[in-house]
Design goal:
The protein is an alpha/beta fold and 158 residues long. Helices cover 46% and strands 20% of the residues. The chain contains 5 helices and 5 strands.
Protein backbone atom coordinates (compact mmCIF):
# COMPACT_ATOMS: atom_id res chain seq x y z
CA UNK A 1 0.00 0.00 0.00
CA UNK A 2 1.39 3.40 -0.93
CA UNK A 3 1.58 6.14 1.62
CA UNK A 4 -0.52 9.25 0.88
CA UNK A 5 1.39 12.24 -0.43
CA UNK A 6 2.37 14.54 2.45
CA UNK A 7 0.67 17.96 2.41
CA UNK A 8 1.47 21.48 3.48
CA UNK A 9 -1.60 23.21 4.91
CA UNK A 10 -2.36 26.94 4.55
CA UNK A 11 -5.35 28.62 6.19
CA UNK A 12 -7.16 30.92 3.76
CA UNK A 13 -8.05 34.47 4.71
CA UNK A 14 -8.00 37.85 3.02
CA UNK A 15 -4.86 39.15 4.73
CA UNK A 16 -1.60 40.02 2.99
CA UNK A 17 0.25 37.60 5.24
CA UNK A 18 -1.88 34.76 3.88
CA UNK A 19 -0.33 35.38 0.46
CA UNK A 20 3.17 35.23 1.94
CA UNK A 21 2.33 31.94 3.70
CA UNK A 22 0.80 30.53 0.52
CA UNK A 23 3.81 31.52 -1.58
CA UNK A 24 6.19 29.95 0.95
CA UNK A 25 4.13 26.73 1.16
CA UNK A 26 3.80 26.48 -2.63
CA UNK A 27 7.54 26.94 -3.15
CA UNK A 28 8.34 24.35 -0.47
CA UNK A 29 5.79 21.93 -1.92
CA UNK A 30 7.31 22.37 -5.37
CA UNK A 31 10.86 21.88 -4.05
CA UNK A 32 10.03 18.79 -1.97
CA UNK A 33 7.44 17.05 -4.15
CA UNK A 34 4.72 17.56 -1.55
CA UNK A 35 1.20 18.74 -2.22
CA UNK A 36 -0.67 21.74 -0.91
CA UNK A 37 -4.00 22.06 0.89
CA UNK A 38 -5.94 25.27 1.47
CA UNK A 39 -8.44 25.41 4.33
CA UNK A 40 -11.18 28.03 4.62
CA UNK A 41 -13.19 28.21 7.84
CA UNK A 42 -16.55 29.94 8.06
CA UNK A 43 -17.46 31.21 11.49
CA UNK A 44 -21.09 30.37 12.37
CA UNK A 45 -23.49 33.31 12.37
CA UNK A 46 -25.17 34.49 15.55
CA UNK A 47 -28.57 35.06 13.96
CA UNK A 48 -30.14 31.72 14.91
CA UNK A 49 -33.38 33.43 15.92
CA UNK A 50 -33.63 34.91 12.41
CA UNK A 51 -33.40 31.71 10.37
CA UNK A 52 -33.73 33.40 6.97
CA UNK A 53 -31.04 35.98 7.79
CA UNK A 54 -28.77 33.31 9.21
CA UNK A 55 -29.09 31.10 6.12
CA UNK A 56 -28.46 34.05 3.78
CA UNK A 57 -25.37 35.06 5.76
CA UNK A 58 -24.10 31.47 5.69
CA UNK A 59 -24.53 31.19 1.91
CA UNK A 60 -22.78 34.53 1.39
CA UNK A 61 -19.91 33.43 3.65
CA UNK A 62 -19.61 30.14 1.74
CA UNK A 63 -19.55 31.96 -1.60
CA UNK A 64 -16.90 34.40 -0.38
CA UNK A 65 -14.78 31.56 1.06
CA UNK A 66 -15.06 29.60 -2.20
CA UNK A 67 -14.00 32.63 -4.25
CA UNK A 68 -11.06 33.22 -1.90
CA UNK A 69 -9.94 29.58 -2.08
CA UNK A 70 -10.26 29.56 -5.88
CA UNK A 71 -8.10 32.68 -6.10
CA UNK A 72 -5.48 31.24 -3.74
CA UNK A 73 -5.57 27.89 -5.57
CA UNK A 74 -4.90 29.64 -8.90
CA UNK A 75 -2.01 31.51 -7.29
CA UNK A 76 -0.53 28.26 -5.90
CA UNK A 77 -1.09 26.35 -9.14
CA UNK A 78 0.82 29.06 -10.98
CA UNK A 79 3.82 28.26 -8.78
CA UNK A 80 3.61 24.47 -8.44
CA UNK A 81 1.82 23.50 -11.65
CA UNK A 82 -0.55 21.40 -9.55
CA UNK A 83 -4.01 22.37 -8.28
CA UNK A 84 -4.03 22.29 -4.45
CA UNK A 85 -6.69 20.49 -2.43
CA UNK A 86 -9.34 22.87 -1.08
CA UNK A 87 -11.45 22.27 1.98
CA UNK A 88 -14.14 24.37 3.65
CA UNK A 89 -15.26 23.88 7.23
CA UNK A 90 -17.72 25.70 9.46
CA UNK A 91 -17.04 26.45 13.12
CA UNK A 92 -14.35 27.87 15.37
CA UNK A 93 -11.10 28.29 13.40
CA UNK A 94 -8.83 26.67 15.99
CA UNK A 95 -11.20 23.76 16.55
CA UNK A 96 -11.67 23.14 12.81
CA UNK A 97 -7.92 23.22 12.31
CA UNK A 98 -7.28 20.80 15.18
CA UNK A 99 -9.97 18.42 13.91
CA UNK A 100 -8.58 18.47 10.37
CA UNK A 101 -5.05 17.71 11.56
CA UNK A 102 -6.39 14.79 13.62
CA UNK A 103 -8.42 13.44 10.69
CA UNK A 104 -5.86 13.83 7.90
CA UNK A 105 -2.55 12.20 8.74
CA UNK A 106 -1.08 13.25 5.40
CA UNK A 107 -0.84 16.86 6.67
CA UNK A 108 2.84 17.27 7.44
CA UNK A 109 3.23 21.01 8.04
CA UNK A 110 1.05 24.01 8.83
CA UNK A 111 2.21 27.27 7.25
CA UNK A 112 0.89 30.46 8.86
CA UNK A 113 1.43 34.08 7.94
CA UNK A 114 2.16 36.58 10.71
CA UNK A 115 0.92 40.14 10.45
CA UNK A 116 3.27 43.03 11.22
CA UNK A 117 0.38 45.33 12.09
CA UNK A 118 0.06 46.86 15.53
CA UNK A 119 -3.02 44.68 16.09
CA UNK A 120 -0.91 41.55 16.64
CA UNK A 121 0.31 38.72 14.44
CA UNK A 122 -3.11 37.09 13.99
CA UNK A 123 -5.26 34.72 16.06
CA UNK A 124 -3.45 31.47 15.28
CA UNK A 125 0.06 32.85 15.69
CA UNK A 126 -1.05 34.59 18.90
CA UNK A 127 -2.40 31.30 20.25
CA UNK A 128 0.96 29.67 19.56
CA UNK A 129 2.88 32.54 21.16
CA UNK A 130 0.80 32.25 24.32
CA UNK A 131 1.63 28.56 24.51
CA UNK A 132 -1.98 27.49 23.98
CA UNK A 133 -1.05 25.30 21.02
CA UNK A 134 -3.42 24.43 18.24
CA UNK A 135 -3.60 20.67 18.26
CA UNK A 136 -4.67 17.74 20.33
CA UNK A 137 -2.96 14.39 20.24
CA UNK A 138 -1.30 14.83 16.82
CA UNK A 139 1.03 17.80 16.85
CA UNK A 140 2.67 18.85 13.58
CA UNK A 141 5.45 21.31 12.76
CA UNK A 142 4.40 24.89 12.08
CA UNK A 143 6.19 27.46 9.96
CA UNK A 144 5.35 31.11 10.58
CA UNK A 145 6.09 33.40 7.63
CA UNK A 146 6.30 37.14 8.30
CA UNK A 147 3.68 38.89 6.22
CA UNK A 148 6.17 41.52 5.10
CA UNK A 149 8.58 38.94 3.73
CA UNK A 150 9.18 39.57 0.03
CA UNK A 151 8.98 36.91 -2.66
CA UNK A 152 12.75 37.25 -3.13
CA UNK A 153 13.35 36.64 0.57
CA UNK A 154 11.03 33.62 0.49
CA UNK A 155 12.85 32.31 -2.59
CA UNK A 156 16.14 32.56 -0.69
CA UNK A 157 14.93 30.23 2.07
CA UNK A 158 12.88 27.71 0.08
Amino acid sequence: MTEPKRKFLVVADTSEECHAALYFAARRAQATGRSLMILAVIEPSNFDHWIGVSETMRREAEDAAMQLMESLAEEAEGITGVRPDMLMREGDLRQCLATLVEEDESIALLVLGASDSGEGPGPLVSALARGKGLFGSRPIPITVVPGSMTMDAIEAVT
